[in-house]
């Protein structure tokens, strides 16, 4: 049972300006509550009991919000106040806090609605540590709402992932939710680097897998995305 998660909440939120001039992006409200709380509510419903949250921009505000939240989860802060470490560096810094078992990693700037199956239960069912170092939740390009780009990955019949080829469109977009094995988090190239380094290693070993999300997903990275999410939820 995977019951630990990391919530990535340290980013500067530049694309969300001016809303992030006075608050961190995880505390920007969508549909009546902060983005962070949407993610934490789903993690709690999904059976996660321990959450490591990395902080940098307006870190005191994020910490105060976590302390005020009443729930059955245990929170631990991975402090990046001194230096923003990007996604890979943030994972490496938090690794001692995450334990030695596979864990969920969730971005705080996305918004999803479950399909027929609860997201985290579905990912646990697919996860196979004998074959996988990472399992990424993907959505077909046509259902990546508020997202621009040419896609991220191709996925074969077994779920194994490869990168989009240059000059081509890939059918799947990564939507900021994954399961990671701690065994993948080794040999960092520097203090500051992207999770792409770990994914590339897993691809080379044939151990990066994906699963397609069957519900709704929104890339809530800019202020313009917020009314799209809210109107979709209100009117379907």
TrEMBL record:
Record's keyword annotation contains rRNA-binding: no
The entry's keywords: Nucleotidyltransferase, Transferase
Domain Nucleotidyl transferase as annotated: residue spans: 5-120
Keyword Signal appears in the UniProt entry: no
Alphabetized PANTHER family for the sequence: N-ACETYLMURAMATE ALPHA-1-PHOSPHATE URIDYLYLTRANSFERASE (PTHR43584:SF8), NUCLEOTIDYL TRANSFERASE (PTHR43584)
Highest rank taxon of the organism: Bacteria
CDD domains documented for this protein: NTP_transferase_like_1
Stated name of the protein: Nucleotidyltransferase family protein
SUPFAM superfamilies: Nucleotide-diphospho-sugar transferases
